[in-house]
Amino acid sequence: MIDYLYFQLQNPWWDNVGAIDKDEKIREFDRLKYQYQPQTILNTRSVPGDIHLITGPRQTGKSTAVKLYIRQLLRRKTLAPQSVIYFSCDALSGEKDVIDLVVEFNKLNNSQRAVIILDEITSVSNWTAGIKWLADTGLISKSTLFLMGSSSINLKKSGEYLPGRRGRGKDIKYLPISFYELLLIHKQDVEKIPINHRRLLFKLRKMEALVKKYHRDFLFSGGFLKNINYGLTESNNDLYIKTLKSELFKAGKKEDSLREVIRKILNSLTSQSSYTNIAEEAELGSKNTAIDYLNFLSDSFFLKEVKFYDLNRQKTILKKNKKFYTIDPYIVWLFEGFVSGNLNFASLHQLVGESEMAENFVASELVKSEQEFFFFQNSRELDFYLPKRELGIEVKYKNKITSEDLKPLAVTKRKILVSKNTLAIRDDVIIVPAYLFPLIEL
Length: 442
What we know:
It holds the Pfam family AAA_14. It comes from Candidatus Roizmanbacteria bacterium RIFCSPHIGHO2_12_FULL_41_11. InterPro entries: AAA+_ATPase, AAA_14, DUF4143, P-loop_NTPase. It is a single chain. The chain is of the alpha/beta class. Helix content is about 40%, strand content about 15%. The protein has two domains: about 170 residues, 3-Layer(aba) Sandwich (Rossmann fold); about 260 residues, no CATH class. The strands form five sheets. Strands 12-13-14-15-17-16 form a six-stranded mixed β-sheet, covered by helices on one side. A five-stranded parallel β-sheet has the order 2-3-4-1-5, with helices on both faces. The protein has a three-stranded antiparallel β-sheet with strand order 7-11-8. Helix 6 links the parallel strand 3 and strand 4. Helix 5 packs across helix 6.
């Protein structure tokens, strides 16, 4: 049984609606110069029976986002304050605790319509069984559930164990913000331009001066709001490295082994590699161990693994080499700090070159826009291919673009070449600087 005191401590607005403004997360948010309004969460309707899953890396503001959602509900008087519950599940041990929590809340709420937000539920053993039991018994039929976690493994499990039980619930990935979102919170007058817009270059050129000055800083701070507001301080860097180590500890992985895997990733970022090659260079002993560590980095939202796509057969080829990218530019620096033990990221020797950083930036923007993408190679390698868009993207981060640079795109219907500074259209290829690429609506 969950003690009422635990409910009361985490939900002070039950006794005083105005208490939401004194919440630690809300107060910190209100003090920020650059405030990000998480529309994917704020625009979610509280429909009874819907079960939403919010996943993303730690320290990106998921908890703040749901507190903002709670404040919005309270201000709109959508529900009675006592019908909105937030509960951090770190101290729960298993599915019975999850069931007890909801049963006790229903008693307090007289089983009225409610919004139930369970933070870090994915850290609870067998949590999906608890939610399944609650759904099957009808105990959450009048509630909208938001289930939150920092591992995408559990996102996959929710689909396996809760089929037909989530209503119209959404899977929301809460990642570091994109470059376009950064421009918006800096109140820049920018917009997304459709790729087929007849005045695409004209509109992009009008925004060029506004955008360019923010790009270099973004390659250091990334989309992490603490970095954007406070800079790359050693305390922030230490916080993120501790977060990585915390996730590593919970997953039962060895720090030394992960350090060698990350070293290999940094040395070959954006290049093709194989599980066997990573295992050998990181001295892991077996390919399966390499896969295990790479999956940890992917499932914890640090890394994106990109597979080979055969354009002729229109399918993914799993046995081919893979390419690896970080899901945010800052993670490159985080990885370098983790490998070196140096918290002063500004003094790090950059293991990743400018061209690789540019390609990694494009990949991270594709991840954040939830595009499905792969790479392709015949006689030449095509950096990115988006099958649903029939779109090829090639990165040539240099001052002068030649006809040879355009050739990898010949195999695709729609074509973008990402350059260093060139903005032009040659034949049917859109050439756009990396800092303008995120302003194209694909």
